[in-house]
Amino acid sequence: MLSTQLTRTAQMLALAAVVAVLCAPAVALGGSTKVAATPDWLERYANAHPYNATQTPDLIERYAAAHPFGDAPASTLADGRSPDTLDAAAGAAVKMIDGRSPDTLDAAQTVQPIEIVSAGGFDWLDAGIGAGLGAALLALLGACVIALASHRRQRVRAA
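Now predict its structure.
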């Protein structure tokens, strides 16, 4: 009985040590968001090779240049409607009825500025929180496995 309790205690202490080792780097780097973000290899490559720096057309661009479909003016394209239908469509005036209240119309006409917020790179605080939660869930799962394994070993014996 005593050896079983010592074994369980040792298992829990080992599990706690593993969780502490996994969480320590995330906690240590949790407050280091003030460091300037350095570009990674992809950002350095993209800065060194701007998009469309060379004007070499690819296969689709060469095909589109050789086959100018759709470059004709709109009047020369076949519409498929009869002349009477074209005349009726040209003479019809479509009125849009706006059922909004005057306050809503006034609010829609004013220009509202949009503030764009860009992230400053990798956020170590968020990564630390995620790593800590992941380690806590892993520890909880390990404790459940240990508890279920020890519960299965205890069987009722007939006297």
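The mean pLDDT is 77.
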